[in-house]
Amino acid sequence: MRLLHIADLHAGKTIGNITRVSRNEDLRFALEQVERICKEEKVSVLLIAGDVFDKKNPDYESLELVVNFLVSMDSHGIHTVIVAGNHDSYDLLKSYKPLNRLAKIHIFDRPSSNISSHIFELENVKIACLPYPSERVLTSIGEESNREYAYKVEKFITALAKEVESAEYRILLSHLMIDSAEIAGSEKKISVLDAYAIRADSLPETFDYVALGHVHKMQMIKNAVPKTYYAGSMYQIDFSEKGMQKFVNLLTLKDGNVFVESIKLDLYRELKEYEIWDDESYTKFMNYHIKDTGSAYVKVVYYMDPTDIQYSLKKEKIIQALGNKLVKLEVRANIKKSAVNTDAYKERDIIGMYIDYYRTNYGITPSEDIIKILKDTIRDIEDETHKTGT
Hints:
alpha/beta; six-stranded mixed beta sheet; 32% helix; elongated
């Protein structure tokens, strides 16, 4: 039997502050590859390890994309097993559970005190399914609220291991944080804190393979006893994943062993990031780097020198040259400058820079009230400076 392990679809993901773009085409391109792999490799079960959607209330386009994909999997005779991730709505996924009456779609929306309800079984394989275990849900099913989160989750996983130990092949499918995992940087920061990390050595050796979602970088957890993998996200979620390759894991169950093959996915559009520090890097970017962007979405970090009177013009040229490929522009202070010309700090320059900053980050011009507050603040500082003689 063969299974395919994928995770972190994040349907409905958007990025950008200059141009706001949906990443659904990137996801669609990845899912088309998954469908092809499943057909070519004669996959029996597709494992989706959480974060099907990027938001609790996904848009209709994202819902349609995911449902169409699930229906396609069923049309090929493939069982799809899904656990909820921390980005998913428990209740939304629960509303799709009746689909298993019509198709081979099996959804596990939240942890339950009924351990046996967490098991999917097919022939000689048992898959223990643990959706993202929020502390609120774990406490509500009987764990003491003063127990540590990791202890509760580890105890739950141990119970799941006992439930599947009679099978020839035993797999854990879950969406959670392992303490030794290397994060990509695009994960929700609070969900990858040490307080929510499970010890790798606590994963029971009962399992032949642990299929994980949550961390967006594909990796094997080396200090776990069972073969334990994060599949990673299916496309570059945001610019912290720039340059990162994407994979899915093909599992072959044979002669009592699980053989793992990581298959690389092609990207629909890469994410590329560039930094501009000075005139030299600006010229190099405009003359050379723009040609290398291809079809990528681009982020530019502009380290602004407040003495550069051409700053606004340069910024507009960057925006015009990249067009719709520029999705994010960040303006930061040029901390590499050791000396600053204080003549640059006239009221009109500071206000102009603030307006540029406000437009870049919020997409609109600041109101007259905000400008008045800024002008009053500048004058108060100037008055105080004259009084103290500094």
